[in-house]
Amino acid sequence: MNLEQDLSEALHGAFDPARPSPDLRVRIVAATRPESSISRRAPRRLLMAASGLAAALVVVALVGNSVRPPVAAPQTPSPAPTNSMTHYAVGRLSFDYPNMWKSRVNVLPWVLALWTGSDPADCLTPTPEPTGPGSHCGRQTPLVPGTLYVTVGDYATQPTEPLIDPTQASALPPGGRYVTVGGQPAVLITQTTGTEETLDWTIAQPKEPHTRVQVHAEIAAPGSDKMKAEVDALVASFRFSSPVKPLDLSQANAIAGQWITMASSTAGFGCFTASPGVRTTGVLTEYMWGLDGLPRPHALSKPLPVSCLMTIEAVPSIGLWKLTFTQSWSADADRTAGSSTLVFWLDPDASDLDGWSNGVGGAPDVLGDPIPYSN
Fold first, then answer.
1. Tell me, what DSSP letter sits at residue 246?
2. Rounded to two decimals, what is the model's pTM?
3. Nearest to 14 by CA among 102, 76, 56, 92
4. Sequence-separated (6 or more) residues with CB below 8 Å from residue 169
């Protein structure tokens, strides 16, 4: 094993060198459901050819790779001999850690491992999630006394998982508390078992509805206080290069109205009014989206009477607008009552709203029941 070569590769690596630039002009975004908790679909442009669709509507993959900030090229840690710290940057995230720590990138996809003491063992089978608190990929088992092991990575969440919202105390997991990391809301869970202490930070990412940054640290006595202070300093050094900006709440109705006006001629949107919060009725004869959220224009086998409601909500923790379209229907002889919801995430920094809000795979969140009579 060539330790010097391993460390050099680790320090000069990046989570994912194949991501697009984060500086695209239009940033209307949407979250997608990951194919797995760590898998990612490559962003792509889709031309939407549905009947009645305005010619200028283009599906654009805009923010992040569903789970990670885009990265243009591997980043080189900056030497910092004067303060004994190493600077690490990937995508929109950067932080510092003691240069006496050893490191390895991609112990799991897009996960950086940092440790003291002997080199870590091969990855163990992670349970339950590769970057969750139950994962110990790469570390010795049990942890050697007087050493620490830290992983920094990110992971995808399901569209139904609540955002990190410090105003919702009831949403905290057992033992968790709200903190702020890099200007972003986060949840910290601390646990002590015998002589070992574990700390887990789950951090909201700017303009990423369904991804989180995860920091998992394990510390084994003796020397716990010093090592914990070093881990705390690492987390305190977190910086996002695209920090969240305050949302102008006075623009909510105008943004929603502009968006629905753009989409009103598209299959499935005709019954929505340009005024958020106003319920209307209509008859659905065709629909734009498949259950996977991808554009799949199709005619219904028979007309479906629906009640339609559009709402817009500011989500200041990630700096996006949440635009929700809900269609409800009553029971009939050949169908049960139900509702279907589409969620689009809009970026206030977009220079215009001439594109669909689509992220990786071109998919909005699709929640609720399947549309009746869809073939």
1. P
2. 0.71
3. 76
4. none
Q: Which residue type sits at 21? A: S
- Distance (Å, whole) CA 285 – CA 298: 9
Q: 229 near 146, Cβ under 8 Å? A: no
How wide is the angle at C-alpha 224 spanned by C-alphas 221 and 228, nearest 5°?
A: 145
Q: How far is CA 53 from the centre of its chain?
A: 29
Could you write out the DSSP letters of every residue in 278-296? --EEEEEEEEEE-TTSSEE
Over its length of 375 residues, how does the chain's per-residue pLDDT go in tens digits?
Answer: 443 344 334 333 433 433 333 332 222 233 333 333 323 333 322 223 333 323 222 222 223 333 333 333 344 444 444 458 999 998 889 999 999 999 888 777 678 889 998 776 555 444 445 444 445 555 666 788 999 999 999 888 888 888 999 988 888 999 999 999 999 999 999 999 999 999 999 999 998 888 899 999 999 999 999 999 999 999 999 999 888 888 899 989 988 888 888 887 888 888 998 889 999 999 999 998 887 777 888 899 999 999 999 999 999 989 888 999 999 999 999 999 999 999 988 887 765 544 444 332 346 889 999 999 987
- Give the number of other CB atoms < 10 A from CB of residue 86: 19
Structure tokens at 336: 């049960």
C-alpha distances in Å from residue 331, one per residue of 271, 318, 336, 374: 19, 38, 4, 16
How far apart are alpha carbons 98 and 320 in whole angstroms?
34
Alpha-carbon torsion (11, 12, 18, 20), positive or negative: positive
CA separation for the pair 32, 365 (Å, rounded): 6
207 conformational bin, left if phi > 0, alpha if psi -120 to 50, beta if neither:
left
Between CA 42 and CA 38 the distance in angstroms is 13
* Interior/surface letters 188-226, b for 16+ CB within 10 angstroms, e for the rest: bbeeeeeebbbbbbbbbbbbbbbbbbbbbbbbbeeebee
